[in-house]
Each structure stands twice: as structure tokens, then as C-alpha cells.
Amino acid sequence: MKIRTVALAGALLALAACEGGPQSALAPAGTDAAQIARIFWVMLIAAAILWIALNGLFAFVTRIHPRPISRRIAETLIIGGGIVLPLILLGTLLTWGLRAMPDQRAPGDGLTVRVGGEQWWWRVEYLPADGGPPVRSANEVRLPAGLRTDIELSAALVIHSFWIPALGGKMDMIPGRVNRMSLAPTEPGTYRGQCAEFCGLSHALMALNAVVLPADEFDAWLSAEAAEADPPDGPGADLFAREGCGGCHAIRGTEWQAQVGPDLTHVGGRTSLAAGILPMTEEALAGWIRNPDAIKPGAEMPGYDHLSPEELTTLARWLMELT
User: How confident is the model at residue 270, as a pLDDT?
Assistant: First the structure.
């Protein structure tokens, strides 16, 4: 009994620990996540009631009041408790849970965000509600609070899975097709997302931040994000050109328009680096440029460890000015 008590207390403490944090499905910050959390709690309570009832009945007939039972009573218990009750209980829970699925795919309020899974980063594109040109970004998703946004998901080479637990459920990203979902965040803040499908060597290092802004702040941010970059001239720009960085990365408003790697137009204004695993700081950016494979094994970006520390700092500082 003492072991059971300790185990139960440990399980309750573990469950309580899951209720907080930016990547908790039990701390919902959106309509869809709240619905999923409600289904979880209802099913957990129903399972607990069923477990207590069955174990209580077992304890009653074996320890509290043990006695022979007739064939009729035994058959009634088997049919009623083993067939009828599970069918009614599980059927009711399944029907109630399935009713929530259409809401998870409800149409949005105009804004569409396309997210593509790469190895191992996220290609992001915003399609404004007013029909304006797409706004490209990477490794971060920003959404307006109080509005539902359509999310279009795809992948380049292997299957990924898009999941921001605090905002909604997960959905696979499959090469050659587009899957659709929608999210309706309610609480402004920064929430962590994660690729939830094993996709290769650095799968565990493929995260992203989801930044939820009040609707007016989001509109202002999207307008600024749509603007072309205004990179300063100087040694940082010279290094970017000399090392061929523009052969993979785009900076709108410049001659560099490649789409192989993440769009760097406003990279300095993002909340994280390398798909959510590093802080957006000058030091972290210089370290990433020097040897990305040491930070994210298998990354396709080549390292630039031939650059001096001063050159790495200069290039990183120049990129940080792209906000």
C-alpha cells in the first residue's frame, strides 16, 4: 500500500508539472488547445472512475465479502461489466471527442501561413488577408490573437510534423501534398513548437517559436516584415558577398534572392536562431556561422571556420542589424 501511495503521489506531481511552460498542452493559450485539454481531462477522469469502480468491485468480492456467486450473477457481471458498460462509456467518449475534430479544421479569418518542413528548419510564408504579395520568413511563426489563421503544411524531402502544444494539435507535413489546419490563439505570448515526427539526425533540434501578438501589433509587424531590408554598407556586407552567402540566402531589396536556405531579410528581429535552439545574439550567430554542424549535426549549411574571430563578429553584427 505504501508503494502504491508513493507511486500515485509521484504521478500526480508529474502531471502537475505538465500544466505549465511554453510547450505544455495542459496550459492552453488558444481555442483549439483548450478543447484538446478539455478532452484529456474528461477522459482522464472517466478512466479514473472506471479504474476505481472495477478495482473496488474486485476488492469487495475477493476481500470484503468473499462468497460463492451463482452462474447467473457471474454471467451478468461479465456481460454487463465487460461488454455493455465499456461499449456505452467508450462509445460516448469517442462520439464526444470526435465532435471536436471539425473545430480543429475550421476556416480562418483571412490570413494564411504556409509552413514548409526542411532538414532541419522551417520555411514560413504569410499570405495577407488583403491579397497582398507573400511575405517570406523562416523558423518562427507569428499569429494574431483573437483571430483564426489558416495553416498550410508541406515538406521538402521527408515527413515532418507541425506541433505547437499550447495553441493546438499536431499535423503531419508530407512531401508532395499540402495538409491544412487552423489555429485560433487567445493569449499573447511566445510559445514553443516542435517537429513531432522523426525526420533525421537533428530531429530533436528542429523547434520553432510561435509569437502571438494582439491583432493591431500583428498587423504592424506584418507590414514591417513585408518591407525590403536596408542593410548597411561596410565590411559585414562585403564578407556576406565574398563568402557567397547570397548563393543560398535571400535578403529582399538586395541582389541576393536565393531560396535554398532561410530568408534573412529581417533575421535580426527574430526571437531565436537555428530553428529555435539558440538565442538570437551576436555571439550565438557567430558560433553558428563558424561551425553549424557542431550545433546541429547534419546541417547542410557549410561552416566558415576559416574566418577569423573578428570577421565572424563583423558578419554576425551586420546580420543582427537586419531587423
Answer: 96
For residue range 244-265, list pLDDT tens digits in order. 999 999 999 999 999 999 999 9
List the beta strands (DSSP E) in 146-215. 149-155, 160-163, 171-173, 179-183, 189-195, 207-213
3-state SS, one letter per residue, for 177-191? CCEEEEECECCCEEE
Whether the pLDDT of residue 13 is over 60: the answer is: no
Beta-bridge partner residues of 141: 210
State the chain's mean pLDDT as an integer.
Answer: 90
- C-alpha distance across the termini of the chain, in Å: 60
Question: How many CA atoms are closer than 13 Å to the CA of 197, on its beta-carbon side?
Answer: 16
The identity of residue 294, as a single letter, is: A
What is the phi-psi region of residue 103: left when phi exceeds 0, alpha when psi lies from -120 to 50, beta otherwise?
alpha
Q: In what order do the strands lie in the sheet with 149-155?
A: 135-138, 122-127, 112-117, 149-155, 179-183
Element (H, E) at 279: strand 278-279
Residue tagged 535552439 (cell numbers): 277
Side-chain-side CA neighbours of residue 264 (13 Å): 28
Please state, in angstroms and rounded to a whole number, the distance separating the CA atoms of residues 156 and 178: 11
DSSP E strands in 205-288: the ranges are 207-213, 272-273, 278-279
Distance CA(152)–CA(292), nearest Å, equals 29
CA distance 69 to 58: 13
Q: Is residue 17 within 8 Å of residue 200, measured between CB atoms?
A: no
Provide Rg for the chain, Cα atoms: 26
Check residues 196 and 69 and name the one with the higher pLDDT. 196
DSSP structural state of residue 267: G
Res. 16: pLDDT tops 60? no
Element (H, E) at 141: strand 140-144
CA distances from 50 to 13, 32, 43, 82, 89 (A): 22, 27, 10, 12, 9
Q: What is the mean pLDDT of residues 99-128?
A: 90
